Amino acid sequence: MIAKHRVASVLVFLLLFPLIMPYEALALNILIFGLYAVGFNLLFGYTGLLSFGHAAFFGVGSYLTGITIVHFGLPWWLAIVAGTLASGVAGLLIGFLAIRTRGIYFSMVTLALGQIVYYAFYKAERWTGGENGLRGVTVEQINVFGLTRDFVNPLTKYYVLYVFVALALWLVSRILASPFGAVIESIRENENRTAACGYNVARAKLLIFTLSAVICGLAGALRALHLSIVPIDSLHYLLSGQAVMMCLLGGMGTFFGPFVGAAVFLYLEDVATSFTTHWMAIVGVVFMIFVLFFPKGIWGTLVQQWQRRASSVETK
Amino acid sequence: MSDSSTGKPVNLRRRILAGGAAGLTIAGAQFVSRMAFAQTGPIKIGFPTPLTGAFSSEAQDQVRAAELAVKEFNAGGGFNGRKCELLVRDDKLNPGEAATRTLELIEKDKVDLIVGSLSAATQLSINAVCKARKVLFNSISQSDAINEAKDWSFYTFHEALTPHITAGAVARYAFPKFGKKVVYLTADYAYGHEMVRGFQRAGQAFGMQTLADIRHPLGTSDFSSFLPRIQALKPDVLVLCNFGRDLVNAAKQVTDFGLKQNMKVITPVLLYTSRQAGGAEAFEGIIGGTSYYWGLEDRIPTAKAFNDKFRKAYAGAVPSDYGALGYAGIRSVLQAITEARSTNATAVANVMRKMRYDFYKGVQNYRLCDHQSVQSVIVVESKSKAMKDKYDVFNVLSIEAPDEKNLRTCDELGHKVLS
Predict the structure, then answer these.
(1) Which residues of B touch A154 (CB under 8 A)?
(2) What is the ipTM of this complex?
């Protein structure tokens, strides 16, 4: 049931999500970083390519959304489109250079290119605000089909951004269910054999790299609207690392895993920070426990359990 | 791991039901707790500051001093019997986290106003969030950008100094005394550039001559490649326009390289905490500006009163400059609430605009056009000899009296003058 309608199940869950979170801003962060991790997972979990430069796409999406609102006065929805597209272009360029390498070299090349993007935005102070970050990405009211809504209201903001996340999740699910989805998974399993079967591996890699960048860029675009600022940290390599952590924690190569990872990571961080300044130690220990004892991640382990049970019921 | 002996379908349904019920209970509880918020509860002040990260020791001092101000207010009976509650949040020195935490404070905790921050970027992000929600924010960290019309709002107040006025005060003191040829060693980011601008502006009056503005990346630990060049330029004055660890490292290496023998080393912001971290020898003879030094107590009675309260509360320790700002930031909003007889942001802002206050360093007031606190700047010199105790690290050289003309003009900041 859940497996059959994975998008619908996730969306119903996310619809109720703000109600079980301590505050809406956290729910929104989880929604946004969940999408970011889902985009990253396309490349990492499904294609088997470990990129350490995905913050570049998140940041480009964020900055271009912010810049088009602040400097060009674009309406918010067009700005989201602009940010997402720009991130796709960045994905195409970086992907074009990076997919020529494999394994650790791929990770290093993406990391290096990500750093180049970081410094380019850091130095373009006139456009990006540099160290101070980009401010003024303020959307106070939105108007959809003649309906005016107060965008400052946290719940309104959540559900508006939720619509974009829903569309992206549907797209990701559609990609994974397509023959192309099967191709990228077979690249993960055995690249040479996929090539031998007649698939153009380089093109498939570039395409999935770009799509992954588009999804991550959308997540960044939504964050610019959520926080009404774009901090330079959006492009920092630590954020690239966070995507890896979230995927591993939730379960790489599963549809819902990255969301679970993002939720657990951010919720844990939020709770731990409120009672100790050594929150990093707590988050680190939990992460280590999961990597050591649940290598499939939280969601991956659960899915595995369910499948085992289902098959044992069938055999009875 | 799995037990597959019992009947599954019933079990599974029960589990789903139980899970659903638990979920609803949590959701319900959260909802009720939000509803239970009372209008007449305590006055809540949100205090986001980087308890973790590079400035954690300064931030913890801010919190200690802020708590002192709150305790004092509550001991005095509060406002209409309403006590004050300080909600400290760790912004991790990360602007995104600062914005999230501020949203939490405003949306979940329903704070009446926000005081805090300890970096240019985080205060600007906190300000952006507060501005959109018309929540009053009193920033206690240095920045030039926050006063500019682009970022500023009617609800923005700036208790701390700006790089411009701090650098200016040091320049006005040091430039006439030590010669006309200057070299800047600058951390290459907004804050560093703002300080250089402050020095150069003030230096014009004395006919100062900039030999070079040498930029180093933020977070440089090895300055040895810059030092021979500085020596070859033979300046009269070397200005270290960097902050925190960068400043400590630069000061140490400048000392070891022997540059101090040929030139005077000055820095716009010389923090008590940096000096403690860097040690007496590295900072020996370096002149810099600061918003507060506890040694003011010899000449300013309110400083004496503040130090005594702080010493009593924290086992004899003295407040640092940033700590003192935490105290003043909280006291001024609380005083404004009391005078306005309201926690309404507009009413409080209107009172603050008119307030003249002296909490710890002499009389201050907020300039009308940008709500910058007009205040004195203390120029200190670090010493390594004749120290009375471990707290005695600076000689106070001069106190530049508060004067609006030392700030950037309202016009320059882009304000269509409100006054």
Answers:
(1) 103, 107
(2) 0.92
